[in-house]
Amino acid sequence: MKKKMEDGGKHMSIRPELIDELLKECTDPTQLLAEGGFLKQLTGALVERCLQAEMDVHLGYPKHGKRDETTGNVRNGSSRKTLKGSQGEIDIVVPRDRHASFEPLLIPKHETRLEGFDEKILALYARGMTTRDIQAQIQELYGVEVSPTFISNVTEAVLDEVRQWQHRPLETLYPIIYVDCLVVKVRENQRIINRALYLALGVDMHGQKELLGMWLGHNEGAKFWLSVFTELQNRGLKDIFIACVDGLTGLPEAIETLYPHARVQLCMVHMVRNSLKYVSYKHRKEVAADLKLIYSAATESEAQVYLDLFAEKWDRQYASISKMWRTNWSHVVPLFAFPEDIRKVIYTTNAIESVNMSLRKVTRNHRIFPSDEAVYKVVYLAMHNIAKKWTMPIRNWIPALNCFAIEFGERFPH
Predict the structure, then answer these.
(1) Average pLDDT of the chain?
(2) φ, ψ for residue 349, nearest 5 deg
(3) Bias category Polar residues: which stretches (predicted)?
(4) Which residue in 174, 214, 358, 367 has the fewest CB atoms around it within 10 Å?
(5) Is residue 264 over pLDDT 60?
(6) CA-to-CA distance for 67 and 60, rounded, in angstroms?
(7) CA angle, corner 320, sides to 317 and 321, nearest 5?
(8) At what angle do helices 222-234 and 251-258 cross, to 10 degrees?
(9) Do the beta carbons of residue 291 and residue 275 sit within 8 Å?
(10) Using one digit for the tens of pLDDT, what is the confidence trace for 355-370?
(11) What Cα–Cα distance (Å) separates residue 256 from each residue in 172, 264, 409?
(12) Phi, psi at residue 202, to the nearest 5°?
């Protein structure tokens, strides 16, 4: 996700004796943060003092000082303005000039919020709170009444950032890519429909996770997935070693068309889950154990033996299971080229499913999204929070990288 710039400036320090002077009249500490309390008054006074200083610079002389007669511009009274900030609403006085050319930097014209207020709204939105929830929270925390329209306008500004992020350049190689989906409810033409939000999570050469993009699909299929991976290719992604995917219709074919050297690995967790759909409850534990023998086998030939034994044992009752595994066999076997500890990295989409679990907590609060754009806003902001925790490489990354260097020697960057 997008990194925030760090503040490299120096912090101002306030002399302790100045703070003592300001607080000596304060006999009740609880009044410091109370409505209309000292901190709110101090904030308003500091803003007004800064605006006066800006006007001094703009006119070229201090208040009550000698005017610059060459410009013909002088102070021309003031206007009142109500700011929304962390201390609630603050009434301030803004100086004016005769030529109406004064453009304050601290509080620009038509701006009614102190810096940081928008960020608080976006932080609440990113945690899955609805517009109405945020309205109530802001009222409770800051004593400020903000309209749902105001909150929507603040979050609307995120869409430009989403578009830039969705089209940003990518690395030329991601050794592993995981693809999965999340179902959300969206209002469309006065109907509420289930929409699949598809996520592509990449692991770079340093073992760091990165969400490459997200797409709301109308019709899942090879054509849709071809457009998704064409987009990724156009953004700079030229090679993939292993693509670990769920059994999404048309996805393996699309990857193999655009990345013919990539190995498409079906997620074994999903394969087992889909297999157990056909099994009665009393047999599920036994069937799952027999399936584990297949995908945990030491070699492909051993796995084939276990699949044949599975078919002999269960085809009379559940013939569709072995048929499904045989049909998808070419996308089951890539994992057998790697040792057991590396397989855990590549044979399951757990890495992206943990992302989906976090996102579900956020999207569950919204229940029904008013539009596709609302989905993108919420998920993007939530992902920004999730990505902050991605500080370490994925588990077993160094051994996996060494295996990749041997297995994909000609394509492995040196």
Answers:
(1) 82
(2) -90, 25
(3) 71-80
(4) 367
(5) yes
(6) 8
(7) 90
(8) 40
(9) yes
(10) 888 888 888 877 788 8
(11) 17, 8, 20
(12) -105, 155
